Amino acid sequence: MTQQRFNMDWMLKDLASSVPQIRHVIVLSSDGLRMAQHGTDTDAADRLAAACAGLQSLSTAVAAEFPHGDGQMRLVVIEVDGGFFYLMAAGAGAFLAVLADDDVDAGLMGHRMRDLVARIGEHLTSPPRVTGPVA
């Protein structure tokens, strides 16, 4: 485990402990690969990351319909029976996903997620994949 990864995991834990009712925190790349996690097992984190990739793609398509915006998804919130799902852009090619119980403080959640993205945005950026041989 690298020092950078350790720091990111610690910050995800900090988010989870600062907002009561958080169940899972995941950082993922835009193509659905889990980059970091807290509060969930690896299989569940991988399934959620894959689902988030589709959701961020759909939300980007919707964002493109707004004539004065930049066409980028910033935040998606979904309410389901038992809780809320939050997906926030967290740098070029990276996203922060959080699942929380239904009695979570939505304002606090949004504020803490924005703070986390601002603090570690450069660490959450997923570099583009290189195709072919690297020189």
From TrEMBL:
Classification via SMART domains: Robl_LC7
Transmembrane intervals: 83-100
Pfam families per UniProt: Robl_LC7
Keywords: Membrane, Transmembrane, Transmembrane helix
Domain Roadblock/LAMTOR2 span(s) in chain numbering: 9-100
Protein name: Roadblock/LC7 domain-containing protein
